[in-house]
Amino acid sequence: MSPAAPRTPRYRGLFPVVPTTFTETGALDLESQKRAVDFMIDAGSDGLCILANFSEQFLLADDEREVLTRTVLEHVAGRVPVIVTTTHFSTDVCIARSLRAQGQGAAMAMVMPPYHGATFRVPEAAVEDFFRRLSDALAIPIMVQDAPAAGTPLSAPFLARLARELEQVAYFKIEVPGAANKLRELIRLGGDAIEGPWDGEEAITLLADLAAGATGAMTGGGFPDGIRTILDAHAAGDADATFAAYQRWLPLINHENRQAGFLAAKALMKEGGIIACEAPRHPWPAIHPATRAELVDIARRLDALALRWAQ
Asked: What is the CATH number of the domain that holds 162?
């Protein structure tokens, strides 16, 4: 049996990351962006996340972030809640980004601890103060993204303390090795303060994380219809159906996580005619043709909605 959620969360379920769509020359393609959003909602997403690492946020200019936030939130128009990633090393810049997102209608801000490059980190006390100041400034919940990219150790006791002491810090996306056990420990230590213990990393650990008590999943955006079947079976308390659904979609989950990365969603959307161009922004290399062909073949075998939604 899965452990009960610590408390009824405001947000739960499937919140995949929206890819950022570009033209062949690297400009923002806002029409494709809107179609990608519509597909992801139609495919069963409970909410969306924008400007995450899987959105190529590290390749975006500040003014483009503003355009994308406004465009997506206006186009979604309240159909589902939208999480906006506002990560920045500077506390003040992160607060400013988060306040703008809040003012535009974001449901939540997702934030990684301060980091830059391979070696620029701050000590735990500074990380705590960073999130304290951010929490004090906001009226919407904060999701702490615990990901290897930051290279910043965030122990379960430390995260639980943030949840207990900081009003808006209530959600945690755990995507580090041993995620399930970390979720269990976080829930045990944080109790009711842990409103949203979430799975990440393209659902590669979803089965274990759900068993550990995860109430949300932030995956890639290419096949929400597949992830939905896993979450629905789990919510119904059907362990056999949950396992069968995960087993069915695992080849595609694995190919995204281990082979195609954040380009998987755009490749599937382009193949299905949802978006006009799947190219990443330079200097990120394009997906290898063989990797793309394998991805599409797996998706076709599964009858993924992305390949037929726009037909």
From this structure: 3.20.20.70
Q: Above 70 in pLDDT, residue 2?
A: no
In a domain, 128, yes or no: yes
Q: What is the pLDDT of residues 18-33, one digit of tens each?
A: 999 999 999 999 999 9
What is the pLDDT confidence band of residue 117, given thresholds at 50, 70 and 90? confident
2 within a domain of the structure (yes/no): no
Measured CA angle at 65 (ends 62, 67), to 5 deg = 115
Active site residues: 173
Residue percentage of the chain with pLDDT more than 70: 98
Domain count, the chain: 1
Among residues of the chain, what percentage have pLDDT more than 90?
96
pLDDT tens per residue, range 46-93 = 999 999 999 999 999 999 999 999 999 999 999 999 999 999 999 999
7 inside domain: no
3-state secondary structure the chain: CCCCCCCCCCCCEECCECCCCECCCCCECHHHHHHHHHHHHHCCCCCEEECCHHHCHHHCCHHHHHHHHHHHHHHHCCCCCEEEECCCCCHHHHHHHHHHHHHHCCCEEEECCCEECCCEECCHHHHHHHHHHHHHHCCCCEEEEECHHHCCCCCHHHHHHHHHHCCCEEEEEECCCCHHHHHHHHHHHHHHHCCEEEECHHHCCHHHHHHHCCCEECCCCCCHHHHHHHHHHHHCCCHHHHHHHHHHHHHHHHHHHHHHCCHHHHHHHHHCCCCCCCCCCCCCCCCCHHHHHHHHHHHHHCCCHHHCCCC
Range(s) of the domain holding residue 158: 13-307
Quick check: is 295 in a domain?
yes
